[in-house]
Amino acid sequence: MSDQLAYAIITPYSLHKSRTGGIIARLLARTGLELVATRMFSPSEELAREYADAMVAARDPLDRQIQELIRDYVRLNFPPDPKTGRRHRVMMLLLRGEDAVHKVRTVVGNFSKDRRGGETIRDTYGDLVLDDAGNVRYFEPAVLAAPTLEEAETKLKIWARYSDRDGGLLGDVIPYPPGQVPERTLVLLKPDNFRFPSGRPGNMIDLFSRAGLYIVGIKVHRMSVAEAMEFYGPVREVLRTKLNGVVAAQAKAALEKELGFKIPPGEERQLGEVLGPLFGDNQFENIVRFMAGKAPSECPPEQMTQPGTEKCIALVYEGVNAVAKIRDVLGPTDPTKAPPGSIRREFGSNIMVNAAHASDSAENARREMRIINVGDNGFKRIVESVYGRV
Asked: In order of start, what are the domains of the chain with their CATH numbers?
């Protein structure tokens, strides 16, 4: 069967309860599909109504009662709060691959009144509570997914039509007590997490949830060489200067072994001054190659701004002291020096292949979010590349 587009929508309650990472981990690891786009939405009344109205489908394996429960759930939980007008957060995941719709729906699972165990996402994160008479007391679907290829197309077109207006980098979706001033910070899940389909990206998001913050933006991004150079530009001069001593010591040891005589301290310092900047430039080339797929010296000028070959996920977290909280969960640059339970200790390999990046200040977060452009609507572009203009 040819490649298909499938979607999974993480509900406002699942996002609120920080179940996002566990859900993403299961979808990626158990379907083996490629995550090609993600987008945060704060659905308007119009989007919620149109999506809900399309919810009941004749070919859906769920029985009619469950379909109607999901329709009513969307009508109640997706639109803005009728009292405050504040919008709710919803996360859209777009996956592509062979038989994608069936694979996603299988992992998401179907509700039944006598279900047991935790095989599917809904088994673990969803709830259908009945009273003794069989009436529904509580219902939470956790994730929404299309039952058929036709339904996936219909519903993706609905979301794509509203994706510019109701989606992107969300604002004013989290209430804060008086006096609390939230920050925003950027996290990049680096390319080493996407070498093959696995639960790593979701598992990392799950660990980041310990910070008690809120995801207000998400994007699958392929960094261009130009973006990588700008993003890591502040690091370049640091690399050219701070490694002089290390480079000098290594050069001294190599030359003494090769030439058979001792190099005095003054000449050793000169070696560092000469070789340090060259070594720093080489390290910068390696960073850009790791993030974008090509080093600046390997990239023709006309390709500098084209999307790279390496994939990452960009997330924007919001909350009080967001920068410090995320960096605390992330851990130091060197995974060998990171504390147990931190992202880099659990998932990092070395100083470069260290699982994730996080902004080190609110100012840098703003600069980095501008470069990555988390609000860019890649979701709509992919939907329209398959189905045409919506």
From this structure: 1-168+375-390 (3.30.70.141), 228-303 (no CATH)
